[in-house]
Amino acid sequence: MSYAIIDLEVTQALPRYLSAAGNVGIAFIFRYKGRPIGFFMKPLPSRTVLSQEELESLLSRAIGPKLLQEKIREELVPPQSEAPFPTLTVAICTKDRPENLALCLESLLKIQVTQCSPHFEVLVVDNAPSDEQTRNLVTNFPHVSYVQEPMAGLNFARNRAIKEASGEILAYLDDDVTVDSQWLNGLSEAWLENPDAAAFTGLVLPYELTTKAQILFEERGGFRRGFEKIHYGQILPGNPLYPCGAGIFGAGCNMAFRREVLLELGGFDEALDTGTPLPGGGDLDIFYRIIRAGHVLVYEPRYLVFHKHRRLLAKLLRQYWSWGLGFMAFVSKTYQRDSTQRSKLRRLVSWWFKDQVHQLGKSLIGHHPLPPRMMLAELWGGVVGLMGEYTRSQRRVERIRRQFI
């Protein structure tokens, strides 16, 4: 089963569409003059024909108000004045996935060739590799730097990138993403519009929807955070738990920071995002700490990547478990370290468990895209995370560090 992903530029004449044999649905990425403005999924039997008129009607229902908003913005908002963009390092932290890494690098280097400014360096951080495949792959990309981080754990690799990077801005990409042609333009635009920002996150859309697991994940919302620019400061009206619910800020597979701010904060917490035992929480923690340190974080939808979601249901099940685990490990750490936010954190934990139980109930009666076992996995991950996982992870990480002294 698969969904076709169709990238539509709405300023051009819409085509007639025929769904291919074997497809069970369609997903549209809508753009206005290259800028992503909407995403829409729809079940559709194979060999179904959508006429131009039917596509226009679908487009109107899906993104009509957003399209009007973009046209008004174009009329009222003056073009950004050109200003020097800071030097940029793009870091890809990877472990034993050369096929994914190759696609990511190819998409990045395509931008380097087609866009002369701003230029950027690319750094691959090979995290505790089991063989030489990644090193050998990088040798085929002459403009890519390579460094090995022997201590296993994503945040060890992210911190190695901070040490090795020369750019004033440090952008992180996961090895299972490819960048959109507008990715660099989006980051540049976010920088020009928000010179006070210390961190940037962007839109994440699916690279493919070819399996049931990928479709389920995207039906629940995937990594999407919407198509509106958001400037996150010290308060967020209407959100009494802000900034403790750090998942609103974006996804760790596509994020960038002022390198000097990362250094001021002491880098990433190496007891989070440690790999198999605790594969999460590191992005939530750094987003939260950025805000709590008095900085601004900006979400920019034009800063777009495509993520290769997990293809197998067993892998998706583990992902939801790890989301619950990582989130509650982050909450536990924050409760220990930031006493002024404890009241909010207690309310956040209460809200999260109530929401998870509510979603589980909807799943049990068939009113939720995820099956009950997925919901139970995330719920159980949260329970384990809350019951001392961060402290256990600190002990594991200390043992790893002692091995490399």
What is the strand and helix layout of this fold?
Layout: E1 2-9, E2 17-18, E3 23-32, E4 35-43, E5 49-50, H1 52-76, E6 88-94, H2 98-114, E7 121-127, H3 133-138, E8 144-149, H4 154-164, E9 169-174, E10 177-179, H5 183-193, E11 197-206, H6 212-219, E12 230-232, E13 254-258, H7 259-264, H8 282-292, E14 296-307, H9 313-337, H10 342-364, H11 372-403
Parallel strand pairs: 1-3, 6-7, 6-9, 7-8, 11-14
Antiparallel strand pairs: 2-5, 3-4, 9-13, 10-14, 11-13, 12-14
Helix pairs in contact: 9-11, 10-11
Structure overview:
The chain is globular and about 65 Å long. The longest helix has 32 residues, at 372-403. It has 11 helices and 14 strands. β6 (88-94), α2 and β7 form a beta-alpha-beta unit. The chain has helices spanning 52-76, 98-114, 133-138, 154-164, 183-193, 212-219, 259-264, 282-292, 313-337, 342-364, 372-403; strands at 2-9, 17-18, 23-32, 35-43, 49-50, 88-94, 121-127, 144-149, 169-174, 177-179, 197-206, 230-232, 254-258, 296-307. The protein has 3 domains: 2-76, no CATH class; 88-311, Spore Coat Polysaccharide Biosynthesis Protein SpsA, Chain A; 315-403. Strands 6, 7, 8, 9, 10, 11, 12, 13 and 14 form a 9-stranded mixed β-sheet that branches. A 3-stranded mixed β-sheet has the order 1-3-4, sandwiched between helices. Strands 2-5 form a two-stranded antiparallel ribbon. By secondary structure, it is α/β, with parallel strands linked by helices.
